């Protein structure tokens, strides 16, 4: 079943996606204000996870299964970003 | 979609937004990077899983396998990334905050807002403000 869901379900999914996007935008304040680089990396990781969820919710609301492939690739890139930044922000580099 | 499926989508989306709100509040209230990684790796992961479950209910059984794969990936990589960042912070020499130490920049002193833990009187009128 790949059709568009009924209007109440679609509105709930889009509203949840909008609220999550707003929370991610609020979290960017921690990315700006974080005293260390590790605070910023953790906050960027959470923003990326929220964006993955928003992509999946919008895909469900529009009835587009292809959005899930985009979300999966975005989750992979988000994980690589966090591990890479934490690995190369210190000298020894053996974090994982 | 049945009424039960609609109710499930509404409840799962509401719970997901609630857990994401808990994570964001934790990011602004907790004192150092270790406590913030703890807020990120638990509240945010659970909120993401609930939202992906809502998407799975809305899509129907055709896309459950792909969403289950995405949920498994989020479940594995979120705490792993938080662990890697916390370990690199420990290797960089950042000491975990404990009560009585001066706060790092950007945090809110939770202990000072509870008066029974303090022996000296507040020096200005901002102690009762949360």
List the helices and strands and how they pair.
The complex is a heterodimer of chains A (96) and B (130).
Chain A: H1 7-33, H2 37-62, H3 66-88
Chain B: H1 3-29, H2 33-59, H3 64-91
Quick summary:
Chain A has 96 residues and is an all-alpha fold. Helices cover 79% and strands 0% of the residues of chain A.
Describe the overall structure.
The complex is a heterodimer of chains A (96) and B (130). Chain A has 96 residues and is mainly alpha-helical. Chain A has one domain. Chain A has helices at 7-33, 37-62, 66-88. The longest helix of chain A is centred in the N-terminal third of the chain and has 27 residues, at 7-33. In chain A, 44% of the residues are buried. Chain B has one domain (3-117). At the A-B interface, α1, α2 and α3 of A face α1, α2 and α3 of B.
Order of helices and strands of chain A: HHH
Strand content of chain A: under 5%
For the record, give the distance between the C-alpha atoms at the N and C termini of chain B, rounded to a whole number.
45 Å
Low-confidence stretches of chain B: none
Give the key terms.
heterodimer, A: 96 residues, mainly alpha, 0% strand, B: mainly alpha
């Amino acid at each position: 079943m790949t059709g568009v869901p009924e209007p109440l379900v679609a509105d709930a999914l889009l509203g949840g996606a909008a609220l999550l996007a707003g929370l991610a935008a609020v979290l960017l304040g921690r990315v700006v204000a974080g005293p260390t680089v590790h605070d910023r990396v953790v906050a960027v990781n959470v923003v990326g996870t929220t964006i993955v969820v928003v992509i999946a919710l919008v895909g469900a609301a529009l009835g587009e299964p292809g959005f899930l492939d985009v979300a999966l690739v975005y989750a992979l890139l988000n994980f690589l970003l966090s591990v890479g930044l934490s690995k190369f922000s210190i000298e020894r580099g053996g974090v994982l | 979609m049945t009424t039960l499926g609609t109710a499930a989508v509404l409840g799962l989306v509401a719970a997901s937004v609630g857990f994401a709100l808990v994570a964001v509040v934790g990011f602004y209230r907790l004192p150092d990077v270790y406590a913030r990684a703890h807020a990120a790796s638990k509240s945010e992961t659970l909120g993401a899983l609930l939202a992906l479950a809502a998407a799975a209910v809305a899509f129907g059984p055709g896309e459950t396998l792909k969403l289950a794969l995405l949920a498994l990936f989020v479940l594995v990589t979120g705490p792993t990334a938080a662990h890697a960042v916390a370990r690199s912070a420990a290797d960089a020499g950042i000491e975990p905050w404990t009560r009585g130490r001066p706060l790092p920049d950007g945090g809110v002193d939770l202990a000072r807002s509870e008066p029974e833990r303090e022996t000296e009187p507040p020096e200005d009128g901002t102690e009762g403000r949360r």
